[in-house]
Amino acid sequence: MDAGVGEARENSRQVVADRELQPALDAYRSYLERKPDAAGAVFNYAWYLAKDEQFEAAVEMYRRALELRIDSPEEVHLNIANLCMDHLADDELARKHLLEATELRPGFFGAHYNLGNLAEQDGDRAAAAAHFEICLESDPGNETALARLGDVHRFTMADDPLLEWMAETAQTSRNSDLHFALGRAYDSLSDFDKAWQHMSRANALDEEAQPRYEAGASQDRIDRIISQCSADWLSSFGAESHRPVFICGMFRTGSTLVEQMLAAHPSFAAGGEQEFFPRLVARDFPDYPDGLDSIPGEKISEWREQHAMLSRRLAGASRLTDKRPDNFLCIGLIKAILPSAQFVVTERDWRDAAVSIFGTRLGPSQAYATRLEDIRHYLGLQRRLIDHWASLLGEDLFRVRYEDLVLQPRETLEGVLQALGEEWDERCLAFDTLDNKVRTASAWQVRQPLHSKSIGRWKNYRRPLEEAFGRDLAD
User: Fold this and answer.
1) Helix or strand or coil: residue 77?
2) Which residue in 2, 135, 295, 379 is deepest, having the highest Cβ count within 10 Å?
């Protein structure tokens, strides 16, 4: 019997090792040559194509499954939408498929959840809230949907019914998303004791479930990156390339703000947090930086053209910006592949950065984020690596402090633009009026005019910071 949608969804919960992908792809391709109208097999083939990062081909196969009238077609529309949102930068097509899914199954949780995410990225609080409310009507006990509703809500009073609902649910909840959302809610109400309690609870839950931060291993990795990516190593790569701009640094240090400001300039197109280089490193350098000393020239050319195609698709004639913060780890590799690339590194008072990171769920790939001491240790490693890149790249790497950008926006941004070889444009200061998508935790902040409320925010949490760092807090 052919596999159906339900069976394929069960398969999708399993981790498929790269070495297993090709046999699975070959098997489904062979099977479909004999049974081209097997809708379930077409669906499963699409799923494996997506795992193999053949995203356009996966979408075509999912469409084929719809043409074959597969059972539960709303699930197929959801999968297409996910690929469009996460990998193909086509949110309008994603929205179309999500709406079709809701027509097929009114109240469909997955579709409304993603429609809520899209509305948030568009800056539409009311629409986002409406979709998350439908999610809760469909599944009243879903704490993640409740957290998302809290994220898009403006809390102005302590007796807000939504806040009371969230707080009551959180009393027995082990959902870190809900506790993070409550931390942000109480912070907005200046109830900093409760905010810290929920931030701490959220991070404790994540620390239980995620890999522990290994300070020694992290330091060893930075040491190896610095040793491998020397001036001699970098000089072995030549040629010219297109001129993307990578905005990187520690999370929560202003990279989204810089990208929004540049997005208002006619020379740039905001690409958000692209997966191109993290995916390349994960696939081709699993023990990064091991392997950087033996990259074949043809691979460099192949990767350069692939990124050029991405830039043409996303930015056209403009310069693509990529604001994935942790690209700072592979600046040397990026520069080897794209010799004409430039970098803007965002920096911030480490105490404000630590509080902001502690109050944001960054996930298992950023294991340091659940403990203040680990955050500070990693901040030190990050600074050391940026110093190394700056010594190699000279004028192609520009450092900008969040505080300067907020307090002296014009002269600071003029410096950024001068470093990037572009003229000043007054529209950059009207970044908060842009009608574009923002896909990060700063989605709401960057739609507001500049303000200095986040500078010195750490003082609201002086007591727990002093407990963690003692006299070092003044450093």
Assistant:
1) helix
2) 135
Provide the angle, in degrees to the nearest 10, between the axes of the packed helices 91-104 and 73-86. 160
Residue linked to tokens 């014009």 = 410
Distance of alpha carbon 60 from alpha carbon 50, whole angstroms: 11
Digit-coded pLDDT (tens) for 311-354: 999 999 899 999 999 999 999 999 999 999 999 999 999 999 99
- Phi, psi for residue 398 in degrees, rounded to 5: -120, 130
Number of Cβ atoms within 10 Å of the Cβ of 21: 16
Asked whether the beta carbons of 317 and 212 are under 8 A apart, the reply is: no
CB of 315 within 8 A of CB of 263? Answer: no
Cα separation of the two ends of the chain: 66
Confidence of residue 471 (pLDDT cuts 50, 70, 90): confident
Domain 154-209 in CATH 1.25.40: yes
Contact predicate 361/202, CB 8 Å:
yes
**Element of type H or E holding 269:** strand 268-270
CATH level 2 (architecture), domain 216-474: 3-Layer(aba) Sandwich (3.40)
Quote the tokens at residue 193: 């004791």
**Per residue in 412-445, is it b (16+ CB within 10 Å) or e — as a string?**
bbeebbebbebeebeebbebbebebebbbbbbeb
> Whole-prediction pTM value?
0.89
Q: What pLDDT does residue 433 have?
A: 74
| 319-322: strand order across its sheet | 268-270, 319-322, 245-249, 342-347, 397-401
Q: Are 76 and 62 in contact (CB under 8 A)?
A: yes
Q: Domain ranges in the chain?
A: 154-209, 216-474
Task: Please report the DSSP string for 155-201 in residue order.
Answer: ---TT-HHHHHHHHHHTT---HHHHHHHHHHHHHTT-HHHHHHHHHH
Largest CA distance in the chain: 72
CB 390 within 8 A of CB 313: no
50, 21 in Cβ contact below 8 A?
no
Please answer whether residues 391 and 232 qualify as being in contact, where contact means their C-beta atoms are separated by less than 8 angstroms: no
Q: Give pLDDT, residue 466.
A: 96
Amino acid at 306: Q
What pLDDT is recorded for position 435?
61
